[in-house]
Amino acid sequence: MEEKLARKRLVLVPIPAQGHISPMMQLAKALHLKGFSITVAQTKFSYFSPQDDFSDFQFITIPESLPESDLENLGQILLALKLNKECHVGFKECLGQLLLQHGNDISCVIYDEFLYFAEAAAKEFNIPSVIFSTTSATAFLCRSVFDKFLNEFKEKQDELVPEFHPLRYRDFPDSRRAPLESITELYRNAVDKRTASSVIINTSSCLESSSLFCLQESLEIPVYPIGPLHMVASAPTSLLEEDTSCIEWLNKQKQNSVIFVGLGSLALMEINEVMEMVSGLAASNQNFLWVIRPGSIRGSGWLESLPEEFSDIVLDKGYIVKWAPQKEVLAHPAVGGFWSHCGWNSTLESLGEGVPMISKPFTGDQKVNARYLECVWKIGMQVEGDLDRGAVEKAVRRLMVCEQGEVMRMRAVTLKEKLRRSVRSGGSSHNSLEEFVNFLRTL
Ligand code: UDP
After folding, report:
1. Which residues belong to the active site?
2. pTM, to two decimals
3. Which GO molecular function annotations are given, in alphabetical order (predicted)?
4. Exposed e or buried b for every residue in 169-191, given b needs 16+ CB within 10 A?
5. Using only C-alpha atoms, what is the Rg of the chain?
6. Are 226 and 212 in contact (CB under 8 A)?
7. Whose CA is nearest to atom 17 of ligand 1?
8. Same fold across 2-237+424-440 and 245-420
9. Does the beta carbon of 22 lie inside 6 Å of ligand 1?
10. What's the rounded mean pLDDT across residues 274-294?
11. Relative to the CA of 23, which ligand 1 atom is closest?
12. Where do the domains of the chain lie?
């Protein structure tokens, strides 16, 4: 651990979603190792229960009176908008109490970009604030121009967006679960830096140097790319219990022989899509490990609404778990490919292990990431349109047994090495983190 200095305190405010809590807690760990005290302010939603690993951290709950059901019913965009309206007063109370408790020794509030109420509350106490973006720099840029293209989204789907090569209008981060006005409202607020003194972002300049350059130009406050954070600090942050039996199953498989199928913490599939997927996987003749989260098949608690045929097909070549230790799975030598929804964390975790991907994005920034995987980093292939068994079989075989997949695997390994260098001493993300820490020490 670095020199303890005066142990300045940082207050971190994650948005309640697995894909945001994990990088926020990895950031917390990294900053704690640099000598800062940490307070994490959460809402009751997707509450991350601190384990032994976080015994030095203070956890507080922001009081609000939203119904529990909002988490499931509203979807991410509408929930974020509601949290911003409802949590300001509660968070102000929290900050007031923390100031009394810690003798005014709070250096900074670091808030998830979608929880801008935290900035407003911090400002009222003259506490500096920092935006933490847990998505890519390119997705951030897309959000910053989102409202300019509202007409084009419908009419020009397949056309390239000027100055956003290789993104098409269809790749822009919209959402099926919220009206365009709400998406626009959230994005407009999220990209507004207000009084924030800097932006930290979970990416690396070796992945997105030109987007980072544009972001830096447009924001005019320091932007620190300090990721991939899971390669900087480890923090067990799973909201669901990990089934480690899949590692024993992987131990019995040959090198690069398994396709890992994981769609993150939020995506939903229809029953017919699950059946197309499993039939395509079977037809590809490859072994597969598939995470099917309880509640992730519409109309089914877990697997019970699926036709019997499902289990018969899985028995032969597959292994199903409710939730996997994903980073460990991706690091396993038996895993040769990742069929993913392309959430930013999953993307970074796969890049960090040199695993090539098949992308089937559902919504939001996943579409941006999928396009980058295919056209910029060239280590992924996107399956577009309706999911049918033929497309699944073809994509899996291309990735797992064809030369095209082998070339992608080699590129993925090269990119993995670049990422590893970027977080090591002297690397770009490492240097950015040092600069950010030095900046925090001046506050
Ligand atoms: N994850 C996991 N086990 C699983 C599935 C997902 O630990 O079985 C983790 C994964 O490692 C990642 C996060 O959940 O860190 C999902 O975040 P991502 O940004 O990829 O997608 P989201 O869930 O936000 O759609």
Report:
1. 20, 112
2. 0.97
3. quercetin 3-O-glucosyltransferase activity; quercetin 7-O-glucosyltransferase activity
4. bebbbbbebbeeebbbbbbebbb
5. 22
6. no
7. 19
8. yes
9. yes
10. 97
11. 15
12. 2-237+424-440, 245-420
